[in-house]
Design goal:
The protein is mainly alpha-helical. The chain has 14 helices and four strands. It has helices spanning 4-12, 18-29, 35-51, 56-66, 69-83, 93-98, 111-126, 155-169, 173-200, 219-232, 252-282, 288-320, 336-354, 369-381; strands spanning 208-213, 236-240, 245-250, 394-397. Strands 1-3-2-4 form a four-stranded mixed beta sheet. The chain is globular.
Length: 398
Amino acid sequence: MEPVTDQAFAAALYSDGDAGLDTGASLLAADPTADAELFRRGEEFVRRAWERGWQPADVVRLVRRDLDETAACLAAGLIVSETARYERLPPRWRAQLDGLPDAPPRNRPDRFSYASAVLGLYRLLLRLPAIEPVGPPPGAAPHGLHLPPAHDEPRMLTRIRALLAKAEATGFPEEAEALTTKAQELMARHSIDEALLAARTHSKEAPGACRIGVDAPYETAKAILLDAVAAANRCRAVWNSDLGFSTVVGFEPDLDAVELLYTSLLVQGTVAMTKAEAGQRAGGRKRTKTFRQSFLMAYAQRLGSRLAADTARVTAAAEAGTGAGAGPEGSGGPDLLPVLAARDMAVKDTAGRMFPETTTTRVRGATDLDGWTHGTAAADRARMGGNGPELRGGHGRR
């Protein structure tokens, strides 16, 4: 006789609609002996996701978006269990695993509801498409993309993270600006120091990649903001709108800076938007959606312009051996620009191999003047000052 799990999967996973899920869930709910096999099959689906280029945070983010929080927690439980079998995990995975939600108790609130949720999750996992890998799956030998060594966070990034956290928490725009500017100064210095050190030691380091979620609503504006941050840090961002993330290609110190800065600027922008929106409502306005869309578009566009201007200033200062862009010995010197240009070309080549075909997207214009005005003002308050990231990159869309 065919195992119950096979019967349930045949009914639920290879057909659309709730009827198949209900049939499969009924079969599983009636047979407690199938529980262990059901969970083991789920681990297999997760393992297939790694082979298709997915990472833990990617899976949970998509499950949460397409299903619900319960399914995301179920996926997290499978991921934690599956990854426990590996002695060593790829870089960045540990932080992703630490950020996963807790798995819910099995068979709660009842066996049928639990089985239905599990089968819905498995249906989604089964249909995950293959995506560009940003590293090998766990257990595989590293090849292709450069993989950074697994190590504790550099002290400089810890300082930057603390500054940006204070900028997000303060209620005073001037203080947030000063903190963000200081963080930018440290990012610029750290990135240029790393580039010069790699050149002096003839390092074989190559660009890597990471994925950053770009979630609805207003994902177009958020993708533009991420692209601006990536370009300012000598990285290239490619947005996959269907799956809700951008892949950022660059050298490891720059990827770290992009993740930190984008997250912080998005938090600061959202806080500023909420305050501005409250003022609009107090004045009798109710066009919340158009206001928010225009606000975030203006915020992203304005920050992009300021980051580009800061790029030129910091690069010039570093080349002259002055200011925040000075190298570890206090001087960028005449060799800095060729070093940065070589790294930029390496990033461009890596991105080109990963994404041989990208398309540009026409962005819908902002329609709310007040939203655009407030968004521009918020970007100015979060501006990068005179010491932003140091070199421009590129962007695209799958």
